[in-house]
Amino acid sequence: MASIGSLLSAFFKKESSVLGIDIGSSAIKIVQIKKKHGKAFLETYGELALGPYAGIEVGRSTNMPGDKMIQAVKDILREAKTTTISSGVALPLSSSLITFISIPYVPEKQVGNVVAIEARKYIPVPLSEVLLDWSIVPREDAYSTSENTPPEKQGYDVLVVAIHNEYLTSYQNIVTGSGLVPSFYEIEIFSCVRAVVDPGVGTTMVIDMGARSTKLYIVERGVLRSSHIINRGGQDITLALSKALSISVIEAENMKRVYGLKGGPEYKELTEIITLNLDYVFYEANSALLSYQKKYAKNISKVILTGGGVLLKGFTDIAKISFQTDVIYADPFGKLETPAFLTEEFAQAGPEFAVAIGAALRKLSELE
């Protein structure tokens, strides 16, 4: 699907435009933005389902060879009428390992060595086979504490990210083979948080439901505190409907999108099947949330919904019941200047484009 947002590109010059690329399991999303008068302006955007390239239905997750992925990226760039090759790329969370570790205090220049030693306990392959990155996370007690506490008693909380060299190389081949020039690759979790969570707010949980899985991120004051993957996503609902109702996958996907949980009494079985699948996701999410609350003695202030799976009709209603707190849809387009006459479309499309917008915003910041 090429977005009508591509029509916007003619109104902008090519210089200093940047692309954010989100390579998902079921679709590729791209966003092109430009800084103008100190603000990020949307130039064009687009989404392309990968199912047809793999010979399966729209909405299904795929595992395609590199040459087909290159063709898909080229197609969406052409259809969206992008005008730049300068880009940043978000990679699937499933391609990485993210963990949090605590290490004792050492001089700052030695932290990297200590992190590498500790990371071996969590990474199941030799460190020579992965790209390892890390950052120090502000300690919980640092918000309220203790200027008098000696540093040797404080230590560090560290966020560790690792991606296998083979995964990274395969994505690099896809992106460069498509004619793009990326300056970074980052795990989608960081792109998503950048686009949907405002720094400085209280504790927030982001639920990102894709085709293959649902990701949970707990963020405090703009800092990632916890992440969790639930191995159930939008395609699982579609496949369950297809099997239970003895209909094709395409019919099941269409029914899910048209009616969701709002089909009324005549679609009682449809509602029950969807609810059953969502109950599993929310049960797992609440378990992760309770674990976080127990560890840090803090409650979340809101839940932000993102990813194509959360656009299911009635999703917010059942989410509010499950989490008993404020539940809102992500509005990543709200961080961009966009035409007023497309406001409603952007509000509906926002959850699907959070990762691409987050990558584009990071790329744009590199120009400052």
Please give a quick description of this structure.
The protein is of the alpha/beta class and 368 residues long.
Describe the secondary-structure layout.
Blueprint: E1 17-23, E2 27-36, E3 39-49, H1 66-79, E4 86-91, E5 96-103, H2 111-119, E6 130-137, E7 156-164, H3 165-177, E8 181-187, H4 188-196, E9 203-209, E10 214-220, E11 223-230, H5 234-245, H6 249-259, H7 268-296, E12 302-306, H8 315-323, E13 326-329, H9 343-365
Parallel strand pairs: 1-4, 4-8, 9-12, 12-13
Antiparallel strand pairs: 1-2, 2-3, 5-7, 6-7, 9-10, 10-11
Helix pairs in contact: 1-3, 4-9, 5-6, 5-7, 7-8
Can you walk me through this structure?
It contains nine helices and 13 strands. It is α/β, with parallel strands linked by helices and 368 residues long. It folds into three domains: 1-85 and 333-368, Nucleotidyltransferase, domain 5 (2-Layer Sandwich), CATH 3.30.420; 95-164, 2-Layer Sandwich (Dna Ligase, domain 1), CATH 3.30.1490; 195-330, 2-Layer Sandwich (Nucleotidyltransferase, domain 5). Helix 4 (188-196) packs across helix 9 (343-365). It is globular, with a radius of gyration of 21 Å.
